Amino acid sequence: MRAVDLIQKKRDGQALNKDEIEWLIKGYVNGSIPDYQMSAFAMAVYFKGMTAEETSHLTMAMVVSGKTVDLTSISGVKVDKHSTGGVGDKVTLILVPLIASFGVPVAKMSGRGLGHTGGTLDKLEAIKGYQIERSQEEFVQQVQDLGLAVIGQSDQLVKADKLLYALRDVTATVDAIPLIASSIMSKKIAAGADCILLDVTVGDGAFMKTLKEAEELSQTMVSLGKEVGRHTVAVITDMSQPLGQAIGNRLEVLEALQIMQGKGRHDITDFICRLAQLLLKLAGQKRSLAEIKKHLTDGQALQKFEKMVVYQGGDLKDLYRPSKAKFVTKIFADEDGYIKELPALAFGLFAMRLGAGRAVKTDFLDYETGIVFYKKVGDPIQKGDLLAEIYANEKLSENLLTEFKKNVKIDKEEMKVTEILKIIT
Ligand code: URA
């Protein structure tokens, strides 16, 4: 086989067979196919797409490009979740201990944030001492002992994705549905859980900008999961505004703690309960929302979370410490009405500039900085009300403050907010 022939075949809109796709992925991982040919192939996929069969072959070729995690020694139905990325997305910090509080083991490998999107690992590392690197044996042992673990993804898992994702990132080929679906599902399949909840975000702060695209991605991923016998469900969720109140690593940990103490905003609390209900159902437990809310707010989820933090080396005292940011600037509303827009992308990028996120992979993070919103889309607001607090380690310029305020849109009309837009099973 020659790579050039396979690139040409895809460029001309033909489907590749299993052997051809396997050969391509193997060759790319062992270095016999160079970046320039793989880039051309990715671009051909971007324009011509892939059939369901091709996407399935690609996903499985990626799964076997590295090690896979064997969770069979853990008793019970093991679950995992994945978000396609967002701003202020602290769901994993809350959902994982909540699910574990029902006796369902959660074995989760998470990633870091890049650009305007945050990553769970960065949030956990905002807790002094928390170790995200664990061997496979330690990971399995922890889930056996505690019922939950959130660690960093091993370098040995899905080697093809590491190479391919870095290549896509610099060749404008990230946002192709077959490539996103195979990238995410190869990692989920390799991570070994029996049930997978996919949170597919849609809106200006997400990869998927329209509901139609999000549906296509969801359907593709759910089919890939089911093909290999994993119970998979996708939830399409709104990412037109940041999730919850906080953006920024330490601030998001604090918000997660508040939610697990029953002191969080009702909308994000209810949203997480609904996700938990779906995931528990996948794992064979039928629970009412009232029951789930009780576990979330009466300390049962919090107890699991604290146990996980301690097990992974985290300092419990540091966990509850407020942000050490030097400057906390309060932003007040200039007019009456309802919050109409808090664009997730703009505020994600704003928080990134404060140091809460990375523009490039090698950037250092400032765990203490970020934004806390006291009003969200749909909330009534009056002139002089506290809208948000900005946590920074440098004094904010007038220009930055003006930019912040310009992004908040207030309107006279009341508006409705829906967090879960669709469920794909
Ligand atoms: N997240 C992934 O893991 N892969 C993609 O391709 C896009 C988002």
From TrEMBL:
GO terms for molecular function: 1,4-alpha-oligoglucan phosphorylase activity; deoxyuridine phosphorylase activity; metal ion binding; thymidine phosphorylase activity; uridine phosphorylase activity. One of its GO terms (biological process) is pyrimidine nucleobase metabolic process. It comes from the Bacteria. Its EC number is 2.4.2.2. Pfam families: Glycos_trans_3N, Glycos_transf_3, PYNP_C. The keyword Transferase applies. It is an enzyme of class 2 (transferase). Residues 338-411 form the Pyrimidine nucleoside phosphorylase C-terminal domain. Its cofactor is K(+). GO terms for cellular component: cytosol. It catalyses: thymidine + phosphate = 2-deoxy-alpha-D-ribose 1-phosphate + thymine; uridine + phosphate = alpha-D-ribose 1-phosphate + uracil; 2'-deoxyuridine + phosphate = 2-deoxy-alpha-D-ribose 1-phosphate + uracil. SMART domains: PYNP_C. Keywords: Glycosyltransferase, Metal-binding, Transferase. Homodimer. Catalyzes phosphorolysis of the pyrimidine nucleosides uridine, thymidine and 2'-deoxyuridine with the formation of the corresponding pyrimidine base and ribose-1-phosphate. Belongs to the thymidine/pyrimidine-nucleoside phosphorylase family. NCBIfam families: PRK05820.1, PRK06078.1, Y_phosphoryl. This is Pyrimidine-nucleoside phosphorylase. It comes from Streptococcus macacae NCTC 11558.
